[in-house]
Each structure stands twice: as C-alpha cells, then as structure tokens.
Amino acid sequence: MRIIPSEVSSSTRSQAERSVFEALKAIPDDLSVALHTVHLPQHHKKRVGEIDFVVIMPEILLFIEVKGGRVVHRDGGWYYGPIGRETGPKESPFVQASGGMHALEGKLGALIGDLRGHGVAGGYLVITTDIDVQRTTEFEPQQYLGSTAYDGGRGLAQGIERATQFWLRRNKWARTPINAPLRKKMLEAIRPDFDLVPNLRSRLRHLDVVFERLTREQMDRLDELESNPRLAWTGGAGTGKTFLAAEAARRRSAHGTVLFTCAGNTLATHMNRILDEDAITVLPFERLDEVRGRTFDHLIVDEAQDVMTFGGLNTLENLVSGGLEKGRWIFMLDQNNQILTPDTYDSEAWEYLSSLGFVYGPLKRNCRNTEQIVRQVRLYTAADLGVASAGEGEPARFADAYDPGEEATLLDAYVEELSQEGISLRDITLVSASGSWDDSSARMSGLASKIDRFSDVVGTDRTKHRLTWSSISDFKGHESDIVCLIDMEPEHLDGRLDALYVAWTRARAHLWVACRPGVRQKLQELGRAALNREGRGE
Asked: How far apart are CA 512 and CA 482, in angstroms?
C-alpha cells in the first residue's frame, strides 16, 4: 500500500505507530493510499486534533487510531502509560477515533461536497499493538484490533478487511467502489493539511510549533525519497529547496547517518539548529575537512551550484558510502547560476554528475516571493524563479539617495512607516550591497542601536524586536518578510547579477531598494540586457 509520507519521520516517537506504518506499507494493495499523522486544526474539542492514519480505499474511508504500551480502563476513565506514570483519565481511543472521523469528514465535505451524497462511507479502527483490551460496551469487535490479532502487523490486512465490511453493513447507502477521480479529490483535499513540517523560522524563535503547508510539487519530491537513492532537485530562489532539503534530511536520518552541507556558513549555522538530530551532521562546505575519513549513509548538498566543480565533487565523493556513483545523495541546486555566475559553475562537472544516474526533480513553483518580486527579478536578471504562488504583493519600492546620510534618513522614515502598520522590527532585514558595517547607512540611522548583525544572531534565540543587518553573501539561503537593500553603488552591479538576484529574492512580502546616484541607470542597462538575452530586445 502506498503511504504518505513515504518514510516515517524521525520525530515519530511512538513505536506502535512505526509498527503500523510498516505494516500498512507491506499490504499488497496498489489502489489504496494511507496518510500518516493527519492534523485537524479545526477539531471541535481540541486546539489541534490528530488522526494517526487515514486510509483512502476503493470501498471506504477508514480512520485508524493507534495506542502502544499499557492501556487501562478504570472507573469509566482511560489511562495510558507505565504503572505509576499513567496519564489520564482521558477519553477512550474509540471516542478519539470517532471524533477525528467526524471532524475530517466535515472538513472534506466542505471542500469536495457531502461525502454521503457521494456515497462514501467512513469508519474507524482502533489498534492496540501491545495489549488486548477487554470488550466493553464502547465498541464492537470489528472496530478493534488487539495485540493478539494484530500479531506484530501480520494481522493488519485482515483487521482492515473486517472493519471495512462492518462499516459497509452499517452504511447501506454507500456506493462502492468509490471512483478513482473522487478518491484523488479526497487525497488532494486532505494532503495539504496533513503533510506538515515545522516552519524553519518557528524552531529558531522557540514559539509554539507552527506548521507550513507543502505545495503539491514539494510533496511529490518528498515522495521520491524512498524509491530513489540519488536525486537532484533544481529550482530558482524561493522554490523551497532548503526547506525540502531539511525535511529530506530528517526523513533520511531514520535510515542511517546524514551529512548535510552547503556553501554558506550562516546557512549551515541556521540548519545546524534546525536539524538537531543525533544522526545528522551539518557543516559548511569549507569545513568538510573536519569529517575527512568518515563516510555517511546519506549526503544532502544544498546550494550545490556553488560547489559544482570537479574539485567540489571529489571532496564529496569520499564522504558518502558507495561514493557518488553508488551512494545515496540529494543535490539541491539553482541552475540560474549558469546565467548569473558562469565562471563559478562548471557545466562539465554537472554533466559528469548527470552521467552517474539520478532522478531529476524540477521545482517550478515559487512559494516564497510575491508575483511582483518574481517579475522584478526576472526583468533585471532574466533569471527564472518559477511560477509565483505566494500571492499578490506591493511593487518593489525604489528610493533615491545622494549619499549615505540621506539614505539613512529615508531608511528611518520607511521603517517608521512599517512600524505604524504594525510590522515588527524583527521581520525587517537590512541587506547591505557593500557588506561593510563601518560604512553602512544603517550605522548612521537613528535606529542603529536597535540593529543586530545577522552573522551574530543566526542560530540563536531571537526574542527582542530588533532589525537585522547582513551582507548579501551572509544572507544567502535565508529570507525575511521585508528586505531593505542598502549601500548600493553602481559598481556593486558590475558583473554581479548574482548579488542582485540573491538580495532581491530574500524578500517574502516586500522589497525596498535605496539607490545611490547612477544605480537607476545601471538597473536600466541590466533590464535591457536581460530582454536581449531572452530575445525580446529591440
């Protein structure tokens, strides 16, 4: 049976859920799809509800609640956990399963139409993998699979079949089989709300866990993990490569050691905080000497375009078991670098890597930048950021400044405007084209005392509402709701399309650009050159 996600997450601590996960995968059924850990943010009784497994079958929509370890029913209450450390009294697993079933059925009905009108029957099955619960009035035998019948997973298929027939008899109006297009609609309706991974920024801020939806395209890429040892995922800035690389590392860590590497030091620091798993080692490319002599079961290379040389590949060759030819690896790269920095991207090295054989997965949907930012970047660099899916935003704003002092005044006015609109200073990043704090207009700003250097705070808990300041190179691989590009002189644009590309694509919602004398003219020249490269120039 197909199961989504295709590999159990390392964050799944329940051995019972892991057992059922593997047992479902072992069932020879090409038509059904099981979904693990379905979140219900609108559950009527809880702030966040959860269903352990939802199985979309040709006959029925089946909800599975799994309990491992000790379960006790005493004085009408249910208790879970070892003796002396029980939690409870809680609702029974049958009430939990029934509540989750009705909540998700209601949500599905709102999205694709009333399930009963479609003839789709729903039912639930409770599994206790380690014990047998004595029969009570709360459930019928067909709604329950105890340890003996479960038999380490060998009895799961029979238990599902028995539950299916039970619920179909109770829902005489059901029309089976459920046609394939309708099953696909149900899958697509559930999947965006279920295959959720922690938002990278929320882990750093130590807030309550916030979940971010994966696009369908990103989920397709993650589905490739289990069956393909070597993968290359390509896409422009904002298509979610680093986000996917992090989740791929988590999933691969369930099956061995993982080396996660990238070109940037600040990105490596950031990812080291995010990927806090014993099986995952995070190092920037320039520090790979620290693990020389070791081999890892899995290799994940983010920003691979920045190390796409034969020297870079030779370094990686010795760090993954089986080498690049036979090892298990994922390369994440932005091939816009072929246009933006052709001198640092070796196309022959890419051709060599391609000859080793891998599954190619393009990412074409930009899930970071607004349409306005995507168009802006394409206009001046001809780079392909994919199809914007983050929605509409405001056009980039350009402000003319004759010198650093005037730029500081304009910057202060803009930040004050944002503050009046309720924007936190923490959501604003000042990206410096010069990369020099000593000469930056930010240092002359009235807000200078409220600015943190990004390289000093990346990978730490940021609780204060302060601006951050960064060079373009240090901010590569990161993002901010609002980016202010400052300290830009015409010479910063000479032969540095990559810097403009990186700086502008860091902005999720809005981009503010300070232009020193001559910058606007230089941008116009870049725009004309971009049109000519695309064959649209006059």
From this structure: 8
